[in-house]
Amino acid sequence: MPTIDCEYAHAAEKDPKILITTSLNPSDPLTRFAKELKIVFPNAIRMNRGSQGIPEIIETCRIHDFTDVVVVHEFRGVPDGIIISHLPFGPTAHFRLLNVVTRHDIKDKKAMGTMPQAYPHLIFNNFSTKLGERTVSILKHLFPVPKLGTERIIAFDNNSDFISFRHYTYKKCGGPKPVDLKEIGPQFELQLHKIELGTLDQDGAQTEWVMRPYMNTSKKRKLLGQ
């Protein structure tokens, strides 16, 4: 099995190519969220899963040189989980998904602005532990390297092991307000649940890290950053 050091060794040689799909029989809210994720991640393709199983999806993605598969789940019509599986060998990260607000759900869509196509700059705040650095590695490799001058930012802000995702555009204005920052959505929170060393289709994949019940109840322990 590949080691952690070599999983992303060749990531800089080509841009990510991501397949986004859902759990079986997705509701309208989950389908809308998956559509918005397609625009968040450059070079992403969204697939209506139909009756296809995970092994079939993973194998097809390997054949067609996809770098990652992203699967979003729901509970009673509310998006509640996202799985990121890096190809061809892993890792696979399982996140809880909380407080999803899609662009569709925002009343004043004009104030949010249009969804840009440029590759975004990434900001990661408060991922100071080894697990935090591992989480950053998994998330950042979903995005290609942006060009200088790109006016698009995606921020992952860790607060007590809940990762807030926010999406912005900005313009340099000069004067008393040098930068005009505008949030364009969607927005949501992530909580890391498990990291496996294999891909999503491998039932026997080795668990690298998993959230234990006592970790949720500890008020002092910070897993991703201080």
Automatic annotation (TrEMBL):
InterPro entries: Brix, IMP4/RPF1. Gene3D superfamilies: Probable brix-domain ribosomal biogenesis protein. GO terms for cellular component: Mpp10 complex; nucleoplasm; small-subunit processome. Transmembrane segments: none annotated. This is Brix domain-containing protein. GO terms for biological process: ribosomal small subunit biogenesis; rRNA processing. GO terms for molecular function: rRNA primary transcript binding; snoRNA binding. Residues 16-201 form the Brix domain. SUPFAM superfamilies: Class II aaRS ABD-related.
